[in-house]
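Subject: sequence -> structure tokens, single chain

Hey, anyone have a minute? Need the predicted structure for the following. Not urgent.
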Amino acid sequence: MTPAAELSACAIVKNVQSRNVSALAVLDAFLEKVKKEDIKVKAFLSLNEDQARFAAESVDEKISKGEPAGDLAGVPIAVKDNICVQGLNATCASKILENFISPYDATVIAKLRSQGALIIGKTNMDEFAMGSSTENSAFQTTCNPWDQNRVPGGSSGGSAAAVAGGMSPLALGSDTGGSIRQPASFCGVVGLKPTYGRVSRYGLVAFASSLDQIGPFSRTAEDCALLLQAICGQDPMDSTSSPLPVPNFREEMKRPMEGLRIGLPREYFGDGLDSEVRKLIMAAVETFKVQGAQVGEISLPHTDLAVPVYYILAPSEASANLARFDGVRYGHRSPGAKNLLEMVEKSRSEGFGPEVKRRIMLGTYALSSGYYDAYYAQAQKVRTLISEDFTRAFKEVDMILTPTAPTPAFRSGEKNADPVQMYLSDIYTISCNLAGIPGISIPCGFSQNKLPVGLQILAKPFAESTLLQAAYAYQKNTNWHLQVP
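Reply:
Had a minute. Here:
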């Protein structure tokens, strides 16, 4: 029999429910793997052994009594450290929240618990989800399991590395401008950003509220569908969550590709795209053609404006959202301040890292009197144009195929001196958030340096089934997702 720590999430559920293996044995196998592997990778900021053991025992007890144990019975799940789990730290990888313990569960966590999932630990990230490499964490730098001298991507690098390194079969991340899909590409795993509103944001520490979405990491499309099914749905605690019914993703993903229309946006295949990445994406396109998909070129003319628009809107929302971290109610408070103003200044100066400070200042400037109309208001208008590009494109095609990132994973420290170069690593993922549509990254091959490359698939709003259908069809005909570091 396959060792417990090598089973897929779907296989774990099947084996636990049929009593071939206990949930506790599965948990112990993955915890052992974390303790062995994470010394090198540093994907986890904290482990949740006691809570997870209690949950595993509860699953095993239900199964022994013949009671339903949930669709995720016995599956360990790693959680990005900006998602609240009651009784655990929620640091956002920032010194300002170093000692903060969440008093409640995020909606996604409550849903996972109700389905028998085991929260195995909290994963490292770029501070407050601001970054593309997981080098902006206040606590540690996560390595890419494929090459420890390279970054795992960001901001959800810890979650991607945990799944890629076999330390957890599933993980949750958040995606504001590519923070699930880009690390999925760099680490050779599946990462899906749902449509804005498909998954509740209640209990996710806000970065940019009109862009943020929680989503799954996995090795396979089927495991991704399993986790997505569990976390979707309307939530009275999040007024932006959608009332639309949630389809049965695992059933719908098995539909054939015959006759589906795929668009290749010419703007995503121009200068700056690594030649090896281009070659692997075009090879993936041929795989879809063989399965009966129709492929044609399309245009998304405002693509080149996505990065500048994002770096006005996201920092503006961040500067407002992060104003609450003032040393008064929770989080770090600077000792020895002589008055309130000095306490707030010192607490924020000591608590926030350089990238967070940079973005707060950018956002505050863009929102300031005299500049609001020139920057923020203009950016919102261009955001509408970017969204309209996709609306027009989806009248012609069912899905859009692009690279997830312009290059494979870059070396640690390589882009730290030039923030703009770092920002450009999200050039292909940002538009998806601005338009609020769903996107997925799936592994589609390796560079000559044996580094994973991701293929991004985009679909119209609430068409996650289409993304999973394409991912599932692709993985049935390739074995890139079966490769391990």
